[in-house]
Design a protein that fits this description.
By secondary structure, the protein is of the alpha/beta class. It has 2 domains: 183 residues, Rossmann fold (3-Layer(aba) Sandwich), CATH 3.40.50.1000; 57 residues, DNA polymerase, domain 1 (Orthogonal Bundle), CATH 1.10.150.450. It is 43% helix and 11% strand. The chain contains 11 helices and 7 strands. It has a 7-stranded mixed beta sheet. Helix 4 packs across helix 5. It is globular, with a radius of gyration of 18 Å.
Length: 256
């Protein structure tokens, strides 16, 4: 983030995007950005498009552990410790497994995403809100296209998105590696200063903010949600994605 960004005057729409929008909190208050300039809306997938209470990633988490046990011959405790260490050190467990053990990423992704989507319910309100956001809408995930498509179909939002940028498209360089963001930008010809990233992991917002994007943190109670949760890289914060989108749409319409 540039000094100019840090000293920029807060836009009224960023202070409170819509009257009564209790789910929307802007932080930190001195640098919050408006949304009028956004023409590309980039959404993370897991624990962002659907509520974290669905606990889908709990299933993925268990399957990752099982994969490590099977492939590396470790017991459950050792596999768990290695899984979390690689996540911290490499951004994803997969990156660590590829670097240190030569794991086939395609087989890994297919295995860990064989999950039950029953907890995810269709969301007509999310689909309606997304359709009203002006500009392009993209998915940016450290998972696979196949997993993203399954989740989007279950939510009923597949048609709302122009494209998906997954870990394969990023040549297995995950968020928060800045090279992954640069490849996303190049692939979809994004002007980062006119883009917003909506994401549940605060550390993944840091490179986005450095590149000039406006950031929105979906606050959850997940294991990693408190790391880097405060700071200049968080421009907007909400616990309810649908409420935030509806308030943003209302604010943008009122300013036209």
């Amino acid at each position: 983030m540039t000094p100019a960004d840090k000293s920029a005057k807060r836009a009224p729409s960023a202070q409170n995007l819509a009257a009564g929008a209790a789910a929307i909190v802007v932080t930190p208050p001195g640098i919050a950005r408006g949304l009028d300039h956004i023409d590309t809306w980039i959404f993370d997938l897991d624990n962002t498009l659907y509520p974290a209470r669905c606990r889908l990633f709990d299933q993925v988490d268990r399957l990752i552990g099982r994969y490590i046990e099977t492939q590396l011959g470790l017991d459950a405790v050792a596999a768990r410790a290695l899984q979390k260490r690689y996540f911290r050190e490499h951004g994803t467990t997969l990156s660590g497994l590829m670097r240190h053990h030569g794991v086939d990423p395609h087989k890994f992704l297919a295995f860990v995403h064989e999950i039950d989507l029953t907890p995810v319910e269709p969301s007509p309100s999310l689909a309606a809100g997304l359709a009203r956001l002006p500009g392009r809408r993209l998915i940016y995930t450290n998972g696979s296209v196949a997993h993203a498509e399954r989740v989007m179909e279950k939510l009923g939002v597949r048609s709302a998105f122009e494209g998906i940028f997954d870990i394969v498209a990023g040549e297995f360089r995950p968020k928060p590696e800045i090279e992954s963001y640069r490849r996303l930008i190049e692939r979809f010809r994004i002007d980062p200063k006119r883009a917003a990233l909506i994401e549940d992991l605060p550390k993944n917002l840091i490179p986005a903010a450095e590149l000039g994007m406006t950031t929105v943190l979906i606050a959850t109670d997940s294991e990693w949600a408190n790391e880097e949760a405060e700071g200049a890289h968080v421009h907007h914060r909400t616990e309810d994605l649908v409420a935030w989108i509806e308030a943003a749409v209302a604010s943008l319409a009122a300013r036209r």
